[in-house]
Amino acid sequence: MTRALLLGGTTEASLLARRLAEACIDAVFSYAGRTEAPVAQPLPTRIGGFGGVAGLLDYLRAEQISHVIDATHPFAAQMSRNAIAACAEAGVPMVAFERPGWIAGPQDRWTHVPDMDAAVAALPDTPARVFLAIGKQNLAGFAAEPQHHYLLRLVDAPQAAPLPDCTIILSRGPFSVAGDLALLTTHRISHIVAKNAGGSGAEAKLVAARDLGLPVILIDRPALPSRAVLSDLAQVMAWLGHTADLGV
Ligand code: 3Y8
Ligand code: NAP
Predict the structure, then answer these.
(1) What gap in Å lies between CA 134 and CA 6, rounded to an integer?
(2) How far is the CA of 211 from the centre of ligand 2 (A)?
(3) Fewest CB within a 10 Å sphere: which of 98, 104, 123, 163?
(4) Global confidence as pTM
């Protein structure tokens, strides 16, 4: 019998959750509990960490999970590593449902950097107006460059201003090109820092930057151990249906 664990937190995960619910496939949706009020899902939902690999392994066994779909964000590397390890040990089939990274077009002014520290280093020395579209977990490093004005887009209000000279926008996304064009123009943004998240939910700012001719510092995805990756909803449903047919 199929009983799937869907590790969520992205637009793709929400689309897959809807498809699983429509197909009446027994599945549980899992959030980390990073935000105060995550979007409701049409599946039974659990919120919070599992407690590392061991905790996830216990969960897989206790809940008799037959399939795991890792539809977390490409930058949610720890969760993905834990899922690979726990599923291997439990002998539970796992597939990543992941959108491909963005690829620059001829008009794009992108600088690719390997990580957050390199993104900080890639900013100019002279004061700039920087849109940090990277959430709130990775802001500390930018305090090393206090000469810039930072525009921060966060899901929930932070306890204190994370950077000396910053403006905070609270917004959950998915975002629109018109909305991001207005944001970049209103705040006179000169540089954008973003993760190479891929997908449609975060792409608007890159399209807006292209239209405005703004430079983008794009952070590469963290490396992950090898795993089966699907980027198409139908493929995931087939993967579930196929192995489910085999009674795996
Ligand atoms: C808690 C669930 C859906 C999913 C929506 C996608 C789209 C909007 C783009 C910008 C970039 C950023 C951030 C972002 C995007 C979608 C998707 C995506 C980027 C929610 C969500 C959770 C989170 C966690 C949150 C992180 C933060 C990252 C904001 C819900 C809304 C910047 C990633 O305050 C915090 O601690 C926020 C933490 C991880 C990155 C960071 O390091 O701060 N996402 N985002 C999930 C959980 O608890 O398991 O609250 O409803 C989901 C979405 N975020 O169903 O429509 O799929 O990419 N999320 C990045 O890409 O750089 C915003 O502003 O342009
Ligand atoms: P992370 O650094 O890879 O994970 C840190 C710990 O958070 C994990 O070890 C796990 O705790 C817990 N966790 C993460 N995702 C979980 C999930 N879906 N269900 C249950 N526990 C989870 O993760 P992150 O980058 O903080 O991302 C957290 C969530 O936000 C994920 O759902 C991700 O899809 C979503 N998100 C992240 C980004 C981003 O930029 N990172 C962007 C959009 C959405 P235990 O070890 O205790 O199990």
Answers:
(1) 24
(2) 32
(3) 104
(4) 0.95
